[in-house]
Amino acid sequence: MTTFKDSTRVIRNPGTVIVAPTSLTAGADGTYGGSIIGSVRAMALTPLGEPYRIMSEGLGEYTDVLEAPNHYAVVFFLRGWEKAGVQNLLDGGYAEGSTSRQAVWTVPGTKTPGQSASDRAKVWLFVPDDTEAHPALIIRSGIADFSTGAEIAFQHQEELGLAVSIECLRDSSNKTLDLGLIDDLTL
């Protein structure tokens, strides 16, 4: 039985976001063969599809429910980000500053409204700080963008960070995502 103490550990699950991992072994640098994007305090996996209810006119009640589409989004607030890794979030508008070598984001960059964003799809890995007690998440093919209404606050009262949303798509092996302890997952 889950105790209250256990459930609070599940709710608060800080960790690291990694793009294009090639291994589920951290390695000496903790990159899992990919690039670290940054750290998060929590990550939310949100199902976006709704089941369809079949109404029986004769009975006046539901007699069946059709399964919901497998449509998921992952959202998180990126607290600190790696200079080299953030280009994976800012595809199409990212450049390295000529003097500072820091990220420079230009809008619209190479993005054109209405064009397919599938060329920006990548494999994403969320690794919790405590890999023995909390689940990791592999997004098999995800397109990152900023959440609707996201703000980058340039003020003293709010933490500087990016609210990121990843649309989860099926990959070539027909998988969308995997959630579980990292020891039980495979790439």
Could you list some keywords that capture this structure?
1 helix; about 190 residues; about 5% helix; disordered N terminus; two-stranded antiparallel sheet; 11 strands; mainly beta; single chain; Elongation Factor Tu (Ef-tu), domain 3
Structure description:
There is one protein chain. A hairpin with a 7-residue loop joins strand 8 (122-128) and strand 9 (136-146). The longest helix has 8 residues, at 4-11. The chain has a single domain (4-81, 117-184), classed as Elongation Factor Tu (Ef-tu), domain 3. The protein has one helix spanning 4-11, and strands at 15-19, 35-47, 52-56, 61-66, 72-81, 94-96, 103-105, 122-128, 136-146, 162-169, 177-180. It has a 6-stranded antiparallel beta barrel. It is mainly β and 187 residues long. Helix content is 4%, strand content 40%. Residues 1-11 have low confidence and may be disordered. It contains 1 helix and 11 strands, in the order αβββββββββββ.
Strand count, sense and closure of the main sheet? Answer: 6 strands, antiparallel, barrel
Cα distance, first to last residue? 31 Å
Strand order, sheet with most strands: 1-2-5-10-9-8
- Count of all domains: 1
Order of helices and strands: HEEEEEEEEEEE
Give the overall shape.
Answer: globular
State the helicity in percent bands.
under 10%
Provide mean pLDDT, rounded.
82
Structural class: mainly beta
Multimerization status: single chain
Residue stretches low in confidence (pLDDT < 50, at least 5 long) are 1-11
CATH class: Mainly Beta
Give the strand tally: 11
Based on the coordinates given, report the CATH architecture.
Answer: Beta Barrel
Radius of gyration based on Cα positions? 19 Å
Number of helices: 1
The CATH topology label is Elongation Factor Tu (Ef-tu), domain 3
Amount of beta strand: 35-45%
